[in-house]
Specification:
About 45% of the residues lie in helices and about 15% in strands. The protein contains ten helices and six strands; from the N terminus they run ααβαβααβαααβαββα. The longest helix has 25 residues. The structure holds flavin mononucleotide.
């Protein structure tokens, strides 16, 4: 049985020809979703500014989340030295050092502590009364502060997955490429990058200018994955 690293290296060695990832003329949602691929080869000289990355993160954070608590936190790793530090932790996946940035999507298990800020802001904008806000915030504290670590992690992973997907689609719409990565040593990552104790890694996302398209999407036919009305 091959190791996770062997498997990940094999993915990188696949001969996909020399086609570059498709550049889209339009950011039509259906086209973006159809054409996004996991891209593993990047132009190492291509740089992204903080503003460009923030534009993608801003639209990504419009994703829905449980009680709008937005438990996602992002660590944007752009410095080459730090990407090199991450490389062995991420099973030597070359996209880690070649992509312009690696974004670690993290889930904050104590995201409920920001409920007052989130709902208070809606009161300030006049869209919610203080009474309704107080009710919301106290219900959130009641429901979320008593969750077990496992339950809170589950919430953070679901919401973290949604924001990750939105990030990858936003990048594609902007003419960039991504690959999500679960193949990394979580404990080593936490230690090496001083991740706060309540933040759980959801995934890493390499972001940059792809030089080789990802392989053809195969998807199971709908009749194998969809059941109508009841099992
Ligand atoms: C949670 C998650 C973890 C993944 N981990 C890795 C990874 O570590 N390395 C990698 O090369 N691809 C990784 N992938 C990418 C998948 O292999 C890819 O999404 C899948 O083959 C479908 O291809 P597509 O993204 O081009 O549609 C991961 C995808 C997801 C959603």
């Amino acid at each position: 049985m091959s190791s996770k690293q062997d498997y990940l290296n094999k993915i990188n060695e696949l001969d996909l020809g020399s086609n570059q990832p498709k550049t889209l003329d339009s950011s039509d949602f259906f086209l973006v979703a159809e054409e996004r691929r996991s891209v593993r080869q990047y132009d190492p000289t291509f740089e992204l500014s903080m503003e460009e990355i923030e534009e993608i993160l801003t639209i990504a954070t419009k994703a829905p989340s449980s009680s709008n608590l937005q438990p996602w936190r992002f660590l944007v790793i752009q410095e080459q030295e730090l990407k090199e530090k991450l490389l062995p932790i991420a099973n030597n996946q070359k996209q880690v050092t070649d992509a312009s940035a690696v974004i670690a999507v993290l889930g904050d298990l104590e995201a409920y502590k920001k409920a007052e800020d989130i709902y208070g802001d809606i009161v300030k904008s006049g869209k919610m009364t203080k009474e309704v806000k107080d009710f919301y915030v106290s219900s959130i504290y009641e429901n979320y502060s008593h969750l077990s670590e496992e339950q809170a992690t589950k919430v953070a992973m679901v919401d973290g997955g949604l924001v990750s997907m939105q990030l990858m689609l936003a990048a594609k719409a902007k003419g960039l490429d991504t690959v999500p990565m679960g193949g990394f040593k979580h404990d080593e990552f936490i230690k090496a990058f001083h991740v706060p104790e309540t933040f759980k890694p959801v995934m890493l996302i390499a972001l940059g200018k792809g030089t080789q398209e990802g392989f053809e999407k195969y998807r199971l036919p709908l009749n194998e994955v969809v059941t109508w009305n009841t099992f």
